[in-house]
Amino acid sequence: MDESMESKALSPLLRVLLLTVGVVAVSFSAIFIKWSDAPAGVLGMNRLLITMVLMLPWVWKRRSDWTTLSRKEWGWLILSGVFLGLHFWGWISSFRYTSVASSMVLLNTAPLFTALGAFLVFRQRFGHVALSGMGLALVGSVMVAGADLQVGKTAWIGDLLSAFGALSVAIHMLIGEQLRNKLSSTIYSFTVFGVASLLLMAINLADGVPLFDWPYREWGIFLLLSLVPTVFGHVLFNWLLKFVGAVTIETAILGEPVGAILLAFWLLGEPATTVQILGCALTIGGIAWYLRGQPDRVSQDAQGVRFRSTTPG
């Protein structure tokens, strides 16, 4: 993304367009993960490593950003990467124990964790329009993903893993929102991806699974995960943290099950139920209503509306 735009406010139309691109991109994650036979740690690690290689030319231009960080900010940056790695490990692992639908329901509690953290830690306030939109989108996403909830002997393990993934990504996004006041999105994304990939590598080594000895088909899936949901999803969302905030992004991601349902119908031939179609409409409407009540962060800063601190803690 163009770092020179970071001092300017985004128009409402551009905000919606970029958020939509990101949501569509991350919606491919579940499809690609279902296609793969690799364990969660390998999927997460290799998608991040490939993304880091792709980012190197832009990172080199912004390398001086690292020298501006204090020791405390380095600590928070590493912690953000740790929670991103835990998110990938927990959420991807959940697919081995439960259905995509069950996993998505619990993953979509992330906006609630994010909003609660933003209120408790940063004293961020939300108007009635934003809260009602978030609630409507959450109800819609539960209808979309919950229409095919799986009940089984091991399903509860997947449910816990997905909920853990939701809590982890919420913490990651809240830390990132504050660090993005200091760092470019390029350096922030590259660093947290590096920390997350190292964590996942350690998990893989502890589990005794091969790190790189995988068939060409799996490497094709790793590349797809890197290019689509990571570059056009996570990297884009990290850039948008400068403009719209963590809670807004997590609320927009409630649209991910909608995209996943449509992609599953298109790519996997899985039909959508009437409840899921209604849920899609509620989710899209709720996200649109939420965004209507939330100005971008650049506009808030211009009006003197800031969190109590520019770095967590």
Structure description:
The longest helix has 25 residues, at 155-179. The protein contains 13 helices and no strands. The chain is globular and about 50 Å long. The two termini are 28 Å apart. The protein has one domain. Helix content is 73%, strand content 0%. Residues 297-313 have low confidence and may be disordered. By secondary structure, it is mainly α.
Give keywords.
globular; disordered C terminus; mainly alpha; 313 residues
Briefly say what this structure is.
With about 325 residues, this protein is mostly helical.
Helical stretch tally: 13
Strand content range: under 5%
Helix and strand sequence: HHHHHHHHHHHHH
Let me know the average pLDDT. Answer: 80
N→C terminal distance: 28 Å
What is the makeup of the main sheet? none
Domain count: the total is: 1
How many β strands by DSSP? 0
Overall geometry: globular
Structural class: mainly alpha
Poorly predicted runs are 297-313
* Quaternary structure annotation: single chain
Helix-residue proportion:
over 70%
For the CA atoms, what is the radius of gyration? 19 Å
